[in-house]
Model the fold of this input.
Amino acid sequence: MEWFATPLRQADIADSMRGAQGIVWDGVWQRIVSRRLAFLVEKGPGAVTRPHFHQADQFQVVVAGRGMLGDHEFSDGAVHYTDAYSAYGPIVAGKSGIWWFTLRNRWDPGARYMPAEREVLNAARDRHQHRELTTEAMPSALLGELCEATAISCRPVLEAEDGLAGWRYRIPPCTAIAGRAPSAGGGQFWLVLTRDASVDGGNPLPANSCIFVGPEDPAFAGASGPVGAELLCLQFRRRARD
Done:
């Protein structure tokens, strides 16, 4: 299990992505040998991210602001998933800008922009079919809603036969939570959306902290803080090499 208590920002990692396996901020820069990567993208009003694809499966989660992703509205709590070699975009930030997390369970050398990389995409099509999913927006819980909760609620976000899945949890104050078995997929990212939560009895992790649970790891075990917490679990699909 790995955690990212302070999220990297895209600007922090741009120069380090060339040839590296990844980095995490935990007081000092460190290499991520396992190649998991989580970082926060911050786009100002009207900013445009051109259509592109990656060589790794990927989740994106909006944590602030709003915009458009292709023809879909992309705002607070929305989740976007793409398989490797699935082109998507453009992403256009709204008037207040947009922030989203990018989550990958494998190393990726960087964006391949269209249409310049169309030949690369076409060459990979017999091994990688296009797959893209976008969920509806789901704003974070208000403080009062968490404090008044009396039981854990779990709302499915997405689910597929190959292990791809997502669940959103609202947890009452000072309540333990056990996740689903990560062996069903290719690993899970847990994102703290609201308030804070601890993992395996450790110190509280604030909002925008990420925890990665590999498919070979025990299930996630955590607990909410004194005012409750909201967590998002996103599980990657199974692949033959997992």
Notes: Helices lie at 10-13, 118-123, 143-148.
